[in-house]
Amino acid sequence: MQNADLEDANLQGANLSQANLQQADLEKANLQGANLQRANLINANLEKANLQSANLQQANMQRADLEDTNLTGANISGANLQGADFEDTIMPDGTVRRR
User: Fold this and answer.
1) Spatial distance between the Cα atoms of 34 and 85, rounded to a whole number of angstroms
2) How far is CA 94 from CA 2, 48, 56, 77, in A?
3) Count of structural domains, the chain
4) Residue 54 domain flag
5) The domain containing residue 49 runs over which residues?
6) Which of 19, 33, 48, 79 has its CA 20 to 30 A from that of 73?
7) Is there a domain that residue 88 lies in?
8) How far is the CA of 62 from the CAs of 10, 11, 13, 34, 56, in angstroms?
9) 1-to-7, 68, 86 alpha-carbon distances in Å
């Protein structure tokens, strides 16, 4: 699913563990409660996506665009977030990250 166009997709609760979503367009996608453990999300566009309560443990999210994304209650432990854009992102603890 590398480079996949999944804009506005409803993937609520989907099991995407270890999926290769490198450079995928997931803008405005509903990934609430999805399992993305160890997924490859390098350079993925997750702008305005709903990742509420998603499992992102050990996901590789280098340089991912997470602008305006909802991560409330998401598990991001061990995730590689190097270079990710968190502008106006709602973090797992409910705080909003500003640039």
Assistant:
1) 21
2) 30, 15, 16, 16
3) 1
4) yes
5) 1-79
6) 19
7) no
8) 23, 21, 23, 19, 13
9) 13, 23, 24
* CA–CA separation, 18 and 75 (whole Å): 15
pLDDT, position 97:
86
Q: Which amino acid is at 49?
A: A
pTM of the complete model: 0.93
Q: Is residue 52 part of a domain?
A: yes
Q: Which residues of the chain have pLDDT under 70?
A: 99
Q: For residue 4, give every residue at least 6 positions away whose Cβ sits within 8 Å of its Cβ, in sequence order, or none.
A: 21, 24, 25
| Distance between CA atoms of residues 82 and 35, nearest Å | 21
How many alpha carbons fall within 13 Å on the CB side of residue 78?
9
Backbone dihedral angles phi then psi of residue 54, each to the nearest 5 degrees: -75, 150
- Distance of alpha carbon 32 from alpha carbon 55, whole angstroms: 9
Taking the alpha carbons at both ends of the chain, their separation in whole angstroms is 30
